[in-house]
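Table S2 (continued). Query chain:
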Amino acid sequence: MLRFAPSPINDMNIENLRIAIFNYIVSKQLNEDLIVRIEDINIEQNVEGKDKEILEILNLFSIEYKSVMHQSDSLKYHQKMALQLMTQKKAYACFCSDTKLDELKKEAIKNGKPFGYDGFCESLSDETVLNTNAPFTVRIKKPEHNIKFTDLWNGDFDYKPFDVDSFIILNQDKTPTYNYACAVDDMIMDISVVIRSQEHLSNTPKQIHIRESLGYTKEIKYVHLPIISNAQTNDSTSVKYLIEEGYLPSAIANYLVLIGNQTPVEIFTLEEAISWFKIENISKNAITFDIDKLKYINKKHLETIDDMRLSKILGFADTDIGKLGKIFLEEVNTIKEIKERIAQIFAPKTSLVGFEEEFLKLKDCLIKAPFFNDYEELKNYISKQTDLKDNNLLKPLEYILTGTNDGVNISNIYPFIKNYLGEIIRW
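Corresponding output:
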């Protein structure tokens, strides 16, 4: 079993999506299920509706998962297992105030040492604990041996007991801390492989220690991948933003698998990647989000997309509009930009500065003109009917049919708009 574990706090960014994609690919390769675990225990930071938005994005990218669970639904299990640890003297009540902990941290910094809890409350007798009427957290005792594990991408790690220390597993309100909830849920869900970003590497020995303290001996394999350096600070790395800007899900997925990776081909689908993807081929070098590279990949996906499908994405149901959209790919890269070009064609036009009289003549002629299958025939007909030639003909005609005067080759466009002339030339 693999899991993708997002928090419903912010918009999903490409870093989160990349982790989801890798988990999906590996789950397919291993023929194991993928579960989505919404880590919502931090109630104050949760944003209403973000969990649904996350699932919508996963569905949009065709990332299949077996089920969805919310971490907050497992609260009783978190508390029950914390009580088990306390009963077994593997965890204890800690009455230390935030003020005292801050003092310990300041002292550690002053002495140039890493902060570690001094274990004051660990030695309290049961009688003292029972007679102390004050809020308390629950701390797990630090390990008595080194915590060792092998990361499938980073190699071997060996943490000393002081590196892990005695840390809080239940807050004063008896809600679980991140590491505790994560460790317990991975155990309950029987997770076999955890693929996540490198920023979680320091959490791994703590989570292993929690599970070992609970008597869970099954090995969980870990992969901690390098982060995309600007994914957290750049608004353009929001998946929602990229979709709104007109990037295809298939192109975004292609880009996220490609960057910092050795792939047999540059342009591919997510399903194609399943057959050759290897986690060990991902580079250890820093990765930076490159919008220009994404634009290039998006254009390549748009070039190969079915004409009717593209037409429907653009708001039509006509292969001609799909073909028209692909013509604009010589100049643009996204769905949004194609829509803007098509919107210019269908936008009402009332006049053209410098060609006001010619514009009116042409538009009146076009309204009355018979249907022409060929653009040159239409142009010759209008010229004869209006006596307009050269720029007096071409400039306003280009504007009426395309909405621009930027030198568009109408001959290339006309075959795909000829059936819409009635809409295009409307007053």
